[in-house]
């Protein structure tokens, strides 16, 4: 990260630029991009939410480029100007033009600029958009040597205008490994907080005791420079932890800005009040209604939840566009759709307005009902070609799903709906990231909704599956027994075409439990019954799941021929319906059968195919299972170091998702034990432990990087400088590998299923941390010695 510092001065710089009285932190990427845009376009607008630092950035850009404009770089501050008729006179005054004629002010301005090479900066144009646009157009038409840089919460909307969205300052990610004291100052937001805190308390420093609190403060304030500066000023009277604890009432707490700035920059509330005043009544209403969402939302959700009353459904798309233009809503581009979000500070303000309108409960109910429909439809579609997009969407919607469930379980009368919704999310919970959370929601619902109906019966067998994945077999057995009893005494025992059968699923998961308890014959009987019931019910999903487990059961008994036949039947069912998730596990089952037959080459190929599918679906449990099987195969071929390393990598997966080893596949533990024993005997204790450390010491992202595509993690085997290797996070090392392969930011976003903006931020941080300014230098660093060449850096 580049830190630019300007010394305090009492004089104005030449060319009409104000001096910086505090240090300028970060913004290396934005500065470079602004220079590039100004070289290619005559009008550039810096946009962004209030308090994000547009004015400060514009001033720094002006300082950087002033030598290119021999006739002046002039900054015109418009924040305090209310009368649009005074716009041109304000610009004339800022440029110190002396004219005593009777000509119109615009003619005077144009005549002054027409033969000059100058940069005109119009700061805070959002409340004067139309007059600013008209003046800029006239200046650009008449003065070919003039370029214009504007700051505004929305674009001017004139021909040739290029936009640079100014994002919040970079932030340390939530969670992850603890950082060394001071290490988080590599992030711009933390660096700014520390810098401004030192201005108030000179001996303030980031330490092991306050670093986490400072990081959390910066995240809670969304990386907004103004909010961070207001918060840091409180360090004179509060510790970082005390400040963090009081941020729930941030609008009252952050109300002591410098006296020499515009009134709306003195408090956080005044700043957002200003943004609110610039919105139309319908835009304000949508702002308040969108605040009911958690995380982000898509257009479909906005139309379903926010329309009504003063807002027609067909108006939503245009109102969203207006709020995006005004930098109230932020846009995140995902491979499948555009999503929108409010910064937490902006969202809290909207929720206050929603409460004032008396609409919060009604909107939360509409929000809950929308996501109930989305989840119910997703459950039906979870077996088929839309599976990958669906799982990706549910990961994006996780915060909204959690919010909807919270609303359901807040009232006993809604508990049945919440339990039904939690059961519909079985595949979202069981892919691994939210396994424990899903179990908690289901346990909560089952404790409240005790009526012995179909909803409870289904929730019981769904929860039993999550318990199996957690190796909580006694709990799973108890839930399956109750679910089966409900099914046997109701019509649920008679499968209807296209509907779930309680008895079919209880037989399926009872078979899994029997296999776990090494009762393979019993497991086969139960699983065959489950498969028959699912065939009768016309449920291909249940049939595929039963066939996968049936293949594993036959393989466990040594009947490889039947295991292969059943596994291939499952593949055929999945192919017919375009499913990827079940077919991935079917291929793993076929790989295990091939391993049992001694066909290690086929086993390896099948398991790697399954792991690629699991990666595309972002299913870490499937990846972990695949790593286990690859380890057993490697050991059988005498590649013991590789086998132990793979076992260590698998442990990273299980540890990351909070699941036991071989989650849901405990009957395979014997193969792992045999692999470990054979490798330990072949290598000796010391070599075994070292190989295991090399695998288990990787981060989750590094495991995925090494397991797919042949890319090795940068921290090993590339000879880079240790300082450079350690400064990048695990995710950044993976993305550096993708950059080295020539992938664009959009392609990286698609492969890792992250927002385009997130990918761009990662690449920018990699450049900053390594001291590079071009992607080619990253590629050279990855492919060669781990460092960009001296020529590249010059």
From TrEMBL:
Residues 721-786 form the HTH luxR-type domain. One of its GO terms (molecular function) is DNA binding. InterPro entries: HTH_77, NB-ARC, P-loop_NTPase, Sig_transdc_resp-reg_C-effctor, TPR-like_helical_dom_sf, Tscrpt_reg_LuxR_C, WH-like_DNA-bd_sf. One of its GO terms (biological process) is regulation of DNA-templated transcription. It holds the Pfam family NB-ARC. This is LuxR family transcriptional regulator. The lineage of its organism: Bacteria, Bacillati, Actinomycetota, Actinomycetes, Streptosporangiales.
